[in-house]
Design goal:
The protein has four domains: 116 residues, Beta-Lactamase (2-Layer Sandwich), CATH 3.30.450; 103 residues, PAS domain (Beta-Lactamase, 2-Layer Sandwich); 79 residues, Helix Hairpins (Orthogonal Bundle); 156 residues, 2-Layer Sandwich (Heat Shock Protein 90), CATH 3.30.565. It contains 14 helices and 17 strands. The chain is α+β, with helices and mostly antiparallel strands and 480 residues long. Helix content is 41%, strand content 25%.
Length: 480
Amino acid sequence: MTECDHKAVAKLCPISKTACPGECAFSDILEDLRVGIMVFDLDEESVFFQNKYAENLVRCAIRPRDYGKLTELFFPDGEMSSSDDGFRKSVVFGDKVLGYTVYNSTRRFLSTFVSDITQRERQREEHARLITAMKSTHDIILMTDPEGRIEYVNPSFELITGFSKDYAMGKHLEAFLARDNSNGSLPRELREAMRLGTHWTGRLNSIKKDGTLYIEEATISPVRAPAGEIVNYVVVKRDVTEKVTLESIAEAVNTMNNIGYIFSGIRHELGNPINSMKTALTVLGNNLDRFSRDVAIEYISRIMAEVSRVEYLLHSLKNFNMYEHVAPQDTDVSSFMEKFLSLVSEDMRKRGIGVHAIIHPEVRWMRTDPRALQQVLLNVLTNASDALEGGEDPKIVISVFRMGGKVKFSLVDNGCGMSEEEQEKLFRPFQTSKAHGTGLGLVIARKMLASMNALIEISSSRDAGTIVEITLPEGHGGQP
């Protein structure tokens, strides 16, 4: 290496104050740095110097036969700039990406600092794909700060609501809610979920720029930093106004059908006891002087029995409208089942029915109204015990387990089962195969469960028992 070359290399090192006589005094420092350093010779268009760190980076990235082509690989356009201003570039070698910053050290030499930016580039590409996906989706996507102030909206927000991105920035989510949505504030459950940092899904009544009201199905999820604190909320919303309209039409049609069943049932259920009472009163009235006291009391007892049946029917109809406003809450599954089993076990034992409960250990919390769920389960167990009457080794197995973020109750009996025709009528008012039933129990049960975002499904085969499955939202016990 010439004296001039030593001076050039010395100038690359900011620590150096003098040129190195005979051998570069700082070569060891450059070799041991954990930063890749390469020096390109502009006159020779070749690599003048590279430290071990840079050499390892290059050897891990390129094929051995390309070692002699580093200048071409780092400067594929053939231009090795001699500008005083630094510039940054990157080069892709297979699955590796090397980034380097070039500075003009002298008129002859370019000093280059090289690093492996493969992971950073992958993250950048992933971020770019994510942004592209957010911009391309038809759903509204927003990002807010921990207090609910908007920091990002995608193009679908502007397209659907009519509000511009600039208008939305910095405003609270509440600014886009209709006034009839709890006076334009976020629902209490949503505010509580944001306070606790938990996930929330539900419907919001929102308003567009032109004043049009519409219904959104929204999902709001917290974004946490590595330390655990919430830094953002991601909000995904979809306009479901048309869907809700169609659901309302279907519900109206279903209601009209149910009304028909109800009126038909009322006429039948009330008509029979009323006719019996009229007949008994007529006979009693016409023979009051001839009947003995005991016979008259017998007729009066028959009349009172029919009155009691009418009262029971009216009470059942009243229950049809009960629990209009259920209050779902995080409920401990084990505690609920312990209380429920203590309530029914003695009665089942007297009937000779074995009740076995299996609660899987991963089940902790469910989101339900305990009082309403208890009524539903009591109804299901009553139906099961009736189906088990007269059977051999009658038993009911209750299993509780998690499935797909839900809590599922499975009640299986080995009773007489049902035919397909009977199953089709299960949820029709006043349709029952019981001698003393009203046909309203399962209708009420399904209505209560629906109001808690829960489902009930029943499958059965004649002489092979029945399976009742109740699916409830999972709770979190007040924890994120």
